[in-house]
Design a protein that fits this description.
Radius of gyration: 15 Å
Helix content: 10-25%
Distance between the termini: 16 Å
Strand content: 35-45%
Number of strands: 10
Oligomer: single chain
Order of helices and strands: EEEEHEEEEHHEEH
Length: 179
Amino acid sequence: MITYNICFVRRGNELLLLNREKPSWMGCWNGVGGKLLPGEQPRQSMIRELLEETSLSEHDVMKLTFKGLITWSSDRSGLGGMYVYVAELPAHHPYATPVKTAEGVLDWKEISWVLHPDNQGVAANLPRTLPQLLQEGCYWFHMDYQAGQLLSSSCHAIEERMEYEQEAREALLLEVSAG
């Protein structure tokens, strides 16, 4: 079941990222997000998480776009997944950083810094997913982890309707678990 969400808040060539103080991805820069509450729809959950973790409301965001799904298989935690969004802020939107939160530290990072091949400070799947997430379209990424290390990843184009179609998402998870 897909029980998490993540959002990459973009302002021009910068992303508002969180350096997490808690597992998973403790000590790494990543998007903001969390766990869906029982009965909560993915988009409403993402709006709630944005407000809780960044104080940004849906009125601050020019556009909140569903970008797809990230699923994973892990020898430690089994099968999991999350909804992925990109939130666009106006280029002039004031948001001073760094900001210390209960989850970690929020700060603006240049996209080129995030994707630099020598950057060891970002979540392991970020360099494999972010380039597509910042383009047009929706994607399904699947990551395979063993002993906490990312072994492989795949990327497939999907339709935007996947945000709302439970049966289609469950079919993807069945495909992964059979795989």
